[in-house]
Amino acid sequence: MRSGVLASVVAFALVAGAQAPARVDADRLMDDVRTLSQPAFEGRLTGSAGNHKAQEFILARFRALGLAPIVPGASGAVYEQPFSFGEKFPDAKNLVAVIAGSADPTHFTVLSAHYDHLGIRGDRVYPGADDDASGVAAMLAAAEYFSHHRPHRSILFIAFDGEEEGLRGSAFFVAHPPVPLNEIALDVNLDMVARGDKNELYVAGTFFTPDLKPPLVALAKDRQLKLLFGHDAPTTSTGTMEKDNWTRASDQGPFHDAGIPFLYFGVEDHPDYHRPTDTADKIPRAFFVEAANLIVDTLLAFDPR
User: Which fold would CATH assign to domain 3-132+144-301?
Assistant: First the structure.
């Protein structure tokens, strides 16, 4: 990032961080995470009826917000990017929409989250409220904001499928992108952004792209949550191997492997991670709303202007 651009980004971040404005509809944010994690969605396992129900919900929101389809289809652009893997998963599907930039429509920031989860195991539904209904809800909240405040650079909103099966959806997207990969400037990936049990939200990725860190430090100032950096260095400060490296732990991994800078927002594992007890009633509203506002401010900060 050139120094002049970085200076303007830092200036924006300082103002946004000091004011910490409300960017998202808090009630809708909470309603969305509750909806996606309710029993009727059956834990959203790839290919399941509940997963298809989640697709319908997300697509309805894309259309209601006026987001445009971008994936090439037989009769024009569509929202769905179908793919398959293994005998068990013949009908996986990424969902992709775009808000075209007002000044630079041919380059893109990606905002991504995965909508699949673990489904039903035995007789227990794994609702996946934090993992990753929260990321999808925050992505939709950002889409609503930018549908009323058009960005300068285009934003791709991607709901990935098959993350829990080994980052299948994001790997397929990077291998079959609807836009050239060299036109994607940044992937902001959201995975588990709601359970602020310690009032801490991590952002990974600045180890690889250090110029991304100063604006985030400025944005985090005077927030009601604590933004921490890490989980992205290959070794610790003492030179030993990093045991909890998130670089390829979620859908930012394929983007990183393709040479695209990323920011991954998430909380550390909590007692309900990958358990039937990951329910929406355990999400602290104030933390989740503040995290979603910070994510929108991050997109604004890195939107060229």
Answer: Aminopeptidase (3.40.630)
pLDDT in tens, 102-113: 999 999 999 999
Mean pLDDT for the stretch of residues 214-221: 96
Q: Report the SS3 class of residue 237.
A: coil
Contact partners, residue 202, CB within 8 Å, separation at least 6: 227, 228, 229, 230, 231, 246, 265, 266, 267, 268
Q: How confident is the prediction for the chain on average, in pLDDT?
A: 93
**193 DSSP 8-state letter:** -
Domain residue spans of the chain: 3-132+144-301
CB 289 within 8 A of CB 225: no
- Candidates 257, 179, 196, 266; CA nearest to 230 is 266
* 1-6 contact pairs (CB < 8 A, 24+): 1/211, 1/212, 5/304, 6/211, 6/214, 6/215
In DSSP terms, 190 is beta-bridged to 113, 265
Give the integer Cα–Cα distance in Å for 286 and 30: 10
Residue 238 burial (C-beta neighbours within 10 Å; 0-12, 13-18, 19+): exposed
Q: If you write DSSP's letter for every residue of 75-120 in order, what string do you get?
A: TEEESEEEEEETTTEEEEEEEEEEE--SSEEEEEEEEEEE----EE
CB 53 within 8 Å of CB 119: no
Contact 162, 46 (CB under 8 A): yes
Query: In angstroms, rounded to a whole number, what is the distance separating the alpha carbons of residues 112 and 89?
Result: 21
Residue 218, classed as helix, strand or coil, is helix
Q: Give Cβ neighbours of residue 54 (< 8 Å, ≥ 6 apart).
A: 36, 41, 44, 115, 116, 136
pLDDT digits (tens, 9 = 90+) for 13-49: 444 444 568 999 999 999 999 999 999 999 999 999 9
Q: Is the peptide bond before 91 cis (omega within 30 degrees of 0)?
A: no
SS3 of 173, please?
helix
How many Cβ atoms from other residues are within 10 Å of residue 237's Cβ? 6
